[in-house]
Amino acid sequence: MTRLVVTGTDTDIGKTVFAAALAGALDANYWKPVQAGLDGGSDAARVAALSGLSPSRILPEAYRLVTPCSPDRAAAIDGVTIDPDRLVPPAVAGPLVIEGAGGVMVPLTDRLVFADLFARWRLPTIIVARTTLGTINHSLLSIEALRRRDVPILGVAFVGEAVAHSEDAIVRLGAVRHLGRLPILPALDAASLAAAFAAGFDLEDFA
Ligand SMILES: Nc1ncnc2c1ncn2[C@@H]1O[C@H](COP(=O)(O)OP(=O)(O)OP(=O)(O)O)[C@@H](O)[C@H]1O
Ligand SMILES: [Mg+2]
Question: Closest residue (by CA) to atom 27 of ligand 1?
């Protein structure tokens, strides 16, 4: 059964938007293991709105932390200890799309970063990357961190206007697959997102 991890080169680059599109296209379940920051709505709520999936497909987070910062710090502020053994992908019927927080080297605990958690799971992992300046460096560093931990990389999903040189450099130097690209949508909603995903990606690459 299809289980995919969506990570990225940074926070705020479009992981949730991409994950919503992917989960919607696959008619999947969505799970965010750790939500840090509850003001302004959770990623799960955003996916519910943007994917068109029924609310039952949006699985509850293992940890919901109040403060918008790295999970280790957010947990400390809330007086919570994150137990990595609780961060196990839920057993569900049907496909599952999992979204990490921030990028691959974001701390979950004093000793564990997200890439370490992904290494436990060994699920095909998608790196969401901007196309704007700086993305080659961030993307290649993310790829190295995952490879070093033997995390299987499915490929890179780009977000932004097409920048052929940067996208080509990441694919060539990182030896990764270019899965597709989502443009920045001026009117972002479930319909425009589904259309952009269908135009920019091949669903078979994720099956
Ligand atoms: N393709 C897109 N078109 C239009 N807006 C987008 C697109 N992708 C992302 N955005 C906007 O950019 C912001 C950040 O996107 P998103 O929440 O998906 O980032 P993220 O990587 O999931 O962040 P976090 O690390 O907090 O989980 C949001 O306001 C979102 O609506
Ligand atoms: Mg997100």
Answer: 101
Residues flanking ligand 1, CB < 6 Å = 8, 11-17, 43, 101-102, 159, 182, 184-185, 188
39 DSSP 8-state letter: T
CA distance 46 to 100: 15
Torsion of CA 204, 178, 144, 96, to 10 degrees: -30
Question: What pTM, to 2 d.p., does this model score?
Answer: 0.98
Mean pLDDT by 10 residues, the chain (207 residues): 96 97 98 96 97 97 97 98 97 96 96 98 98 98 98 98 98 98 98 98 96
